[in-house]
Amino acid sequence: MKKVSKMKEENIKKLLSNDLKKISSKDFNEEIIRQLNLAQKKEKRILFDQNYIIKIFLITSFLVLGISLKIVEKLTETEIIIGLFICALPIYFMVLNKIYQLKPQNFQNNENLN
Amino acid sequence: MSEELIRKARDGDIQAINELINNHKDLAFSIAIKYLKNTEDAEDIVQNSFIIVLKSIKNFRNESKFSTWLFTIVYHECLKELKSKHQKIEYIPQFIECEEEEEEEETFVSNDYNLDNLLKVLKPNEYTVITLFYLKEKSIKDIANITSLSKANIKVLLHRSRLKMKQLVNEKSI
User: Fold this and answer.
1) Residue B116 has what pLDDT?
2) Which residues of A touch B (CB under 8 A)?
3) What does the buried/exposed string (b/e) look like for B99-122 if buried means 16 or more CB atoms within 10 Å of the residue's CB?
4) Which percentage of chain A shows pLDDT scores above 90?
5) What CATH class has B109-174?
């Protein structure tokens, strides 16, 4: 028992790790990933560049609103609602983008069906 | 670090998943091959075990918990495979004879062992326990969870395997 306790842990670890058998299959990891359907996530595509949408729409909508406020002195309720709707447009695109990211396989399936 | 790796793998980071697989595949394969004595079967068992564990990766917070569950699956899948093989070959007397001879060989401790075949002398359960204890630094409690063996039994297996290793490499000044 004493002899065994003297056996250094590092030596045991070294011995055991030297004895480990290596997996011969080269595509062992890839096969697991393929079966997990993660390959699709790797190539996650996006419909629109979010930052680009925000910039473009914010600039244009505020320009439109600013100009209309300058030119047309008195805005009606409907015009204000339409203006706000235009300002909020990027949000709809961002939501659409998120949905597309979450369920890419649905879109791909649709493409395949077509 | 291990939490970060698990988090990345959970998010579908291929690199993190590869790292997780690489961290554990050799030991899982070594344990499987020790039980099954067949490379292809061992590879299949390990691959399936990884798939099972990675599908439920959201349930783990760190790599330690992940590996504990992975080795639990590997261990039990090996036993299941062995059981099904035994059922299949039960009625072939020729095979049973060969198997008995093999068992005798395994328990026989020769004096001319070298470092290359050192670990051949360890029985599958001894090998599983000692590798999990030293290489994966699992506690007795964790090993008990993995193997469903009692803590006392694991301590005995650990002691026995250490003793065997000591006996075999005594002359090599371990």
Assistant:
1) 52
2) 1, 3-4, 7-9, 11-13, 15-25, 28-29, 31-33, 35-36, 38-39, 41-42
3) eeeeeeeeeeeeeebeeeebbebb
4) 0
5) mainly alpha
